[in-house]
Amino acid sequence: MEREAALRIVDEFVHSQALVHHMLAVEAAMRDYATVHGGDPNVWGLAGLLHDFDWEIHPTLEHHPQDGAPILRERRVPEEIIQCVLSHAQHTGVPRDSAMRRALFACDEITGLITAVVLVRPSRSLEDLKVSSVRKKWKDTRFAAGANRVEIEQGARELGVDLWEHVERVIGSMRRIAPALGLDGLGA
Predict the structure, then answer these.
(1) Is position 20 within any domain?
(2) How confident is residue 61, by pLDDT bands cut at 50, 70 and 90?
(3) I need a labelling partner for 110 at 20 to 30 A (CA). Which of 76, 90, 136, 177 fits?
(4) What is the tally of structural domains in the chain?
(5) Distances (CA, A) of 174 to 3, 12, 22, 54, 60
(6) Domain range spanning residue 79?
């Protein structure tokens, strides 16, 4: 599957710019983790890009992401990517039995926390964000309370990486596409 076809799916089902930014951030992190784990960056990136494509039409755990899987199959998304998407939600029971699946779970929540940290900084830029800033906000559980810190820690552990090394890698991934995420400080 080509990225352009995946972007058409995103365009069709996702209207929230914040959600698109989240999906692009996860895609970037997944592409980088693919190179670390010897995977195909295009395949891993597509899993990141499509993982929440159905959130607006299935905004509950009763339906997301499992009810999105038939839609992806109709659009000829490879089953490897669909199974990865399904595995990022613990309630589906799809095991995270590959590096790609573990990476998607690990990258999902942390991108949201990193974005929240950037948005409260005066620069509103990933360029000057340091891990220490994320670490400081991590301790304040009222900050970005929707970012599930337990799942973030679990994801890093399952991926076999230190939490703060993981944060640093994901910041670097997101930094490379900061303009596309609106996190380059130009709107500050």
Answers:
(1) yes
(2) confident
(3) 76
(4) 1
(5) 18, 24, 10, 22, 27
(6) 3-178
